[in-house]
Amino acid sequence: MEKTKIAIFASGTGSNAKAIIDHSFKANYEVDLIVSNKENAGVLKYSEEYDIDAIVIDKETFYEDDVLLDFFKDRGVKFIALAGFLWFIPEYLLEGFSNKILNIHPSLLPKYGGKGMYGIKVHQAVFNAKEKESGMTIHLVNNEYDQGEILLQKKVDISSENSPEKIASKVLELEHKYFPEIIEEFIENNSY
Ligand code: GRF
Prior knowledge:
The protein is α/β, with parallel strands linked by helices. It is built from 7 helices and 7 strands, in the order βαβαβααβαβαββα. It has helices spanning 15-24, 43-50, 59-63, 67-75, 91-96, 120-128, 164-190; strands at residues 4-9, 29-36, 53-56, 77-82, 101-105, 133-140, 150-157. Helix 1 (15-24) packs parallel to helix 7 (164-190) and helix 6 (120-128) packs across helix 7 (164-190). The structure holds 5-O-phosphono-beta-D-ribofuranosylamine.
């Protein structure tokens, strides 16, 4: 059976992107495209390693109506996974991929989410608040930061972690395990 094409938007080291790509070989989807807004993003090395097309977009193009939408549609991309992508998703993409864009956030939303809460800032805030547990949230993307419908949350005990970095790495383990699985499951249930 033909696999469903997805695009990954990522601008960081790309460890989640790698996990999603690795899982794709035994899943119902294939990664058709990597989209980044940073020319030197670590994720781009995976595009080379796995021979997956990648584009680096600038803000103007991203927020210009329809340019990218047509590009994605022409390629047959059906779902989008945001894996460390910080720009707000414009309305034309939300409409063109209505309920087809998934994001992962490294906290138990609604805690430690929203604009400006990303990367180590999230884990620093969790650490400062002396939380005993943290975790990750996979959710649909809508027009408010980190507020779309939650698809999955997983918790992890962080009571013995003594730095934001250690919390980050525990949460990242969860992300790598669950994001690819949820993408697969979501595609299974939402392809029409
Ligand atoms: C992850 O913590 C993810 O939850 C967040 O951005 C980070 C990306 O990490 N949205 P990586 O680039 O996948 O390693």
